[in-house]
Amino acid sequence: MISVNMLSNYLYCPRKLYLQYVLKLARPPKDVLIKGRVRHKVFDVINELDKDIIKGIKSFTPYEDLVMIFRREYSRVVREVIDQMKLELLEVGVESTTIFHKLWIIFLKEAQDRAQYVYDFMIHEKVYGDSLWRRLTPKILTEVSIESNELGLKGIVDRIEIHGENYIPIEIKTGKMPSDGVWPGDRIQLEAYMTLLVDEFNKNIKEGYIDYTDYNERRKITMNPYVRDNILTTIQKVNDVLKGKLPSIVTNRNKCVSCSFRSKCHNLDSS
Ligand code: SF4
Q1: Is residue 153 in some structural domain?
Q2: CB within 8 Å of 24: residues ≥ 6 apart
Q3: Which residue's C-alpha comes closest to atom 4 of ligand 1?
Q4: Do the Cβ atoms of 53 and 65 come closer than 8 Å?
Q5: Residues 10 and 42 in one domain
Q6: Which terminal CB of the chain, N or C, has fewer other CB atoms within 10 Å?
């Protein structure tokens, strides 16, 4: 069974996929990968905390106080996660204070948005504590593992927002955002999750989103009748690479500049 990440790796460079999964060349840790892991972990922990925070709102709470509650909790989580991963961050030359300031821009906004959403719901529905949590939508799941034996595909969705019967998968990305739409690798990843959710969980999927957190922007991908066929075709291409010979160097050499395999890759035969 292949992973969803392998589909986006294939789109980036089939040779890279081969080096990583067939020749099993180890990749040096890159600071973006480590920073991405920290950010994922923070999202994971704050989503787990959400239930306790909301159940703890026992009576009407002004918006400013809600922001303070979410800010305090999110700030604590960011600091704790950075602390837990301090050694890995130092290995790639990232200081704790530097990454804290960068992440805090993202999570302060998250805290304000969540407080606003909960406040509006509370005012509208006039419910608190357990009832507030029970009735609040969307519920949010994070790091959800899904797989399909029929597709031969598995993956972990960053986040799923549940609005009644509608499930909305969301991928969280750091780094550069395209001027328009989403990167091809991000698109195929999200479309693969949408397909897995339809196939395996029989869920109603109309759309998904890529959150480009460094730009505070959410971009939409709509489900369409061609998504499943495109995923099946790409799965086949990935499997062909894994069973085949070393693919050629990618035509767009700009991709090699930031590739973690560049020091080894160009010395290998493409025959
Ligand atoms: S260095 Fe270039 S050709 Fe080689 S794996 Fe990386 S992107 Fe592909």
Answers
A1: yes
A2: none
A3: 265
A4: no
A5: no
A6: C
Of 120, 135, 150, the position where a domain reaches its end is 135
Instruction: State which of 256, 260, 266, 267 you would mutate to test the pocket of ligand 1, scoring each by most atoms of that ligand within 8 A of its C-beta.
Output: 256
The pLDDT score that the predictor gives to residue 120 is 94
- Both structure tokens of 43: 């999202």
Closest atom of ligand 1 to CA, residue 12: 7
Q: Rounded to the nearest whole angstrom, what is the distance from the C-alpha of residue 267 to the centroid of ligand 1?
A: 11
Secondary structure of 159-200 as H, E, C letters: EEEEECCEEEEEEEECCCCCCCCCCHHHHHHHHHHHHHHHHH
> Which of 111, 135, 159 is where one domain is finished?
135
Please compute the mean of the pLDDT values over residues 157-172 and round it to a whole number.
89
Instruction: For residue 250, tell me if it sits in a domain.
Output: no
Pocket of ligand 1 (CB under 6 A): 13, 15-16, 19, 249-250, 255-256, 259, 261-262, 265
Give me the pLDDT at residue 28, please.
63
With respect to residue 256, please indicate whether it lies within any of the assigned structural domains: no
Q: Structure pTM?
A: 0.81
Asked if residue 150 and residue 224 are part of one domain, the reply reads yes
Best of 246, 259, 268 to mutate for ligand 1, by most ligand atoms within 8 A of CB?
259
